[in-house]
């Protein structure tokens, strides 16, 4: 029984445990069912969230297999899923996006190997979409073999914005670098101050201006460009600009490159980043303005001294300057001009005083002149005033939009131009009526001017000449007019040589009708050449006749000389006999002569001597004329020559009742000459004075010299001679005729003396006036030339 009870108890316990276990199982099953349902709902929500999320996941297993939704592939533009990543890369890695997809595959493998999360930008060929792939290691519990998850984000709009921002950033960066380079390279000192107004940046020009070593050194040492002025330093000025929020401008002095210069400083507020600054060197501008003022003052001084009337108007058309000729020219009072009248009022005042041309519509005419203020180029016009005055007006716009008027009185020039036109007409008429044929050729041998005589001689039509042909074009028409047509080249050569060498040329040319023309080419100042043609046919004929007559006269003169020489020798033989027999009779060879016979014999002897002297003079003169008179040149003392002349002339002077004065200077010295011939010349001159001097005659013989020669002077106080008598005295034929029957040398004394002096290379001068005596001067060189 006990055993059954125990069995029953055990069975009950087993049933109870089974019931309890069943109840627990049911409870757990219900719990798991509720958990499963919750999990299904969570999974559904997560799936829905993933489906609507902007990121698209894909699992890449270690073996390269790819797990992803259809939406993932559609996003990439694929119409079917691809099982592996390699196939996906092969499908999408085309054209310019090939490197990006291949790099994605490499980064996926790197993440699987190292577990490092990576990113990669992706593009799809043929699409403007942009993706961002984030690669991470997948959960090892779910994918225990090292799979990776690729989250693909569609960043098309974001990437576009990023690209735009990157472009803007690049542009801004380039602009910043360009601006920084411009500031650094700027010749103007520039700087920046931080919020504490201390220097934080300076450019190279600033460093050079303060003689700094570098920009960092200048910033570190806080070297200021401008010294404090009236207790205000550069930092205070920058603080003031920052306070008022506007740029502050200052004109200060600073020492730049060891030179004191005026600079303009600008402090520019830049908000919270500080204050910028820039300095502009104004010294050159100040100097230029000073130069401009000086030049303007100098210009006004120059205009004030001009003879032309000058008036200057400012941009507001008021008169700012005038000179005295302007005031006088237009009769305006200085008080009225000092009121700076306007341009229109000045014109009206000119009109009222009759100092402007007569015009029909004065307002319109005045408006046109007022428009000169807006012109860029000067204006010029001529005014003819009612009183006949000609004015040349030049209106010059000035740089300050003003106007400068210059009035030049051209009345005299107009009159001269009229006179010139008249002169040109007279010259043209004279030119056309010249006996010579005249033409002018330019440097290129083109005919430019000709007269009617040129046209007549060459018989060329006026229409041909009016075309101003070249000389080569005229040759066919000029050649037939010549005796030898080929000689027309002479004209061309003359013109070409005159134009090229600028030297006058002459030649002759014969025409076919027998006329001969003298050709002359003259270079003109303007580079042209003038050709003049003169008919010398008659002149040449006369010249030839004169040559023939001269030859005949020369031959006759030669015959005359020979005749005189022969006659002199023929006369000398009987004259010698006469002189010899007269001497014998005087010596008593024929017996004692009665007194009257002695007088006759003495007269015969004197006549024979005089005739011998005349024959010797004629012989010497003819020989000197023929250049055959012998001259012995030896050293000759002038004092000895004068003493011998004095010894010869003393007796004759005493007999004629004349006085003889000798004056030989120590500088007379000596010469090379023939003492006999020079004494013969001096004796002839003294004898001429004694013969024609009359009673109370006083003769002075003077000798002096210098380094080059000696001067011998024979002067008297005789009756003198007029011009005709002087000519006769030096003409051997006329003098011989006048002296026939008189004493002396037969009238050949002075002519022979002149010949003898000339044979010594000297000069013979005769000066005389009626009632003032006669002076004969002989100038002999120290060394006579070879005969």
Automatic annotation (TrEMBL):
UniProt keyword annotation of Transcription regulation present: no
Alphabetized SUPFAM superfamilies for the sequence: ATPase domain of HSP90 chaperone/DNA topoisomerase II/histidine kinase, Homodimeric domain of signal transducing histidine kinase, PYP-like sensor domain (PAS domain)
The enzyme's E.C. designation: 2.7.13.3
Reactions that this protein is recorded to catalyse: ATP + protein L-histidine = ADP + protein N-phospho-L-histidine
TM segment ranges: none
Keywords assigned by UniProt, alphabetized: Coiled coil, Kinase, Phosphoprotein, Transferase, Two-component regulatory system
Pfam hit, one: PAS_7
InterPro entries, sorted: HATPase_C_sf, HATPase_dom, His_kinase_dom, HisK_dim/P_dom, HisK_dim/P_sf, PAS-like_dom_sf, Sensor_HK_Regulatory, Sig_transdc_His_kin-like_C
Broad EC category: transferase
Lineage: superkingdom: Bacteria
Residues annotated as domain Histidine kinase: 566-784
Coiled-coil features, chain-numbered ranges: 282-309
Entries under PANTHER family matching the protein: HISTIDINE KINASE 1, TWO-COMPONENT HISTIDINE KINASE
Protein name (database record): histidine kinase
Annotated source species: Sphingorhabdus buctiana
Lineage per the UniProt record: Bacteria, Pseudomonadati, Pseudomonadota, Alphaproteobacteria, Sphingomonadales
């Amino acid at each position: 029984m006990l055993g059954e009870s125990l069995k029953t108890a055990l069975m009950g316990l087993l049933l109870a445990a089974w019931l309890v276990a069943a109840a627990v199982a049911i409870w757990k099953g219900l719990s798991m069912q509720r958990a499963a349902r919750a999990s299904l709902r969570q999974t559904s929500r997560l799936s829905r969230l993933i489906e609507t999320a902007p990121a698209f996941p894909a699992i890449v297993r270690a073996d390269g297999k790819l797990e992803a939704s259809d939406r993932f592939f559609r996003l990439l533009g694929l119409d079917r899923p691809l099982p592996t990543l390699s196939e996906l890369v092969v499908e999408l890695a085309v054209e310019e996006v090939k490197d990006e997809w291949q790099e994605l595959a490499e980064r996926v493998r790197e993440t699987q190997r190292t577990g490092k999360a990576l990113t990669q930008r992706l593009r799809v060929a043929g699409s403007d979409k942009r993706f961002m792939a984030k690669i991470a290691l997948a959960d090892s519990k779910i994918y225990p073999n090292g799979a990776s998850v690729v989250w693909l984000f569609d960043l098309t709009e974001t990437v576009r914005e990023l690209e735009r921002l990157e472009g803007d950033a690049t542009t801004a960066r380039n602009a910043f670098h360009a601006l920084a380079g411009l500031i650094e390279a700027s010749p103007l000192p520039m700087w920046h101050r931080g919020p504490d107004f201390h220097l934080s940046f300076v450019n190279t020009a600033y460093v050079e201006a303060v003689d700094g070593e570098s920009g960092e050194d200048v910033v570190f040492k806080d070297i200021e460009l401008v010294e404090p002025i009236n207790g205000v330093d550069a930092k205070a000025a920058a603080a003031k600009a920052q306070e008022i929020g506007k740029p502050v401008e200052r004109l200060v002095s600073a020492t730049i490159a060891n030179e004191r210069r005026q600079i303009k400083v600008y402090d520019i507020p830049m908000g919270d980043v500080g204050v910028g600054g820039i300095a502009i060197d104004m010294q050159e501008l100040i100097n230029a303005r000073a130069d401009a003022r000086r030049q303007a003052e100098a210009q006004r001084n120059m205009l004030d001294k001009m003879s032309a009337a000058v008036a200057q108007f400012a941009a507001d058309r008021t008169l700012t300057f005038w000179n005295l000729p302007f005031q006088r020219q237009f009769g305006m009072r200085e008080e009225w001009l000092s009121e700076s009248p306007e341009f229109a009022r000045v014109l009206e005042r000119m009109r009222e005083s009759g100092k402007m041309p007569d015009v029909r519509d004065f307002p319109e005419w005045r408006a046109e002149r007022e428009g000169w203020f807006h012109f860029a180029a000067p204006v010029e016009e001529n005014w003819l005033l009612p009183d006949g005055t000609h004015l040349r007006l030049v209106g010059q716009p000035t740089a300050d939009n003003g106007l400068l008027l210059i009035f030049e009185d051209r009345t005299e020039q107009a009159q001269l131009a009229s006179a010139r036109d008249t002169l040109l007409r007279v010259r043209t008429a004279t030119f056309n009526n010249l006996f010579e044929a005249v033409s002018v050729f330019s440097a290129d041998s083109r005919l430019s001017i000709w007269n009617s005589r040129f046209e007549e001689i060459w018989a060329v039509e006026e229409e041909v000449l009016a075309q101003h042909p070249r000389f080569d074009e005229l040759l066919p028409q000029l050649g037939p007019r010549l005796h030898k047509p080929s000689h027309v080249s002479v004209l061309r050569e003359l013109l070409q040589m005159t134009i090229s060498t600028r030297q006058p040329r002459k030649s002759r040319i014969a025409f076919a009708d027998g006329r001969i023309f003298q050709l002359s080419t003259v270079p003109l100042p303007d580079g042209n050449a003038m050709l003049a043609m003169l008919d010398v046919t008659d002149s040449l004929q006369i010249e030839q006749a004169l040559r023939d007559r001269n030859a005949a006269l020369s031959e006759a003169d030669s015959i005359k000389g020979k005749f005189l020489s022969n006659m002199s020798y023929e006369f000398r033989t009987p004259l010698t006999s006469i002189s010899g027999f007269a001497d014998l009779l005087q010596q008593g060879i024929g017996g004692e002569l009665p007194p009257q016979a002695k007088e006759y014999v003495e007269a015969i002897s004197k006549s024979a001597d005089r005739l011998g002297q005349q024959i010797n003079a004629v012989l010497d003169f003819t020989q000197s004329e023929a250049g055959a008179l012998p001259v012995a040149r030896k050293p000759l003392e002038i004092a000895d020559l004068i003493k011998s002349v004095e010894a010869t002339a003393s007796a004759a002077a005493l007999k004629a009742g004349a006085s003889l004065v000798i004056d030989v200077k120590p500088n007379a010295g000596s010469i090379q000459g023939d003492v006999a011939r020079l004494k013969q010349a001096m004796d002839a001159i003294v004898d001429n004075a004694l013969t024609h001097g009359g009673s109370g005659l006083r003769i002075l013989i003077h000798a002096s010299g210098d380094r080059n020669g000696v001067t011998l002077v024979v002067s008297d106080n005789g009756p003198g001679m007029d011009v005709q008598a002087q000519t006769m005295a030096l003409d051997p034929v006329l003098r011989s005729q006048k002296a026939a029957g008189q004493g002396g040398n037969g009238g050949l004394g002075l002519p022979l003396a002149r010949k003898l002096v000339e044979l010594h290379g000297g000069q013979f001068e005769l000066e005389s006036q009626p009632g003032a005596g006669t002076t004969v001067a002989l100038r002999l060189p120290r060394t006579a030339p070879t005969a």
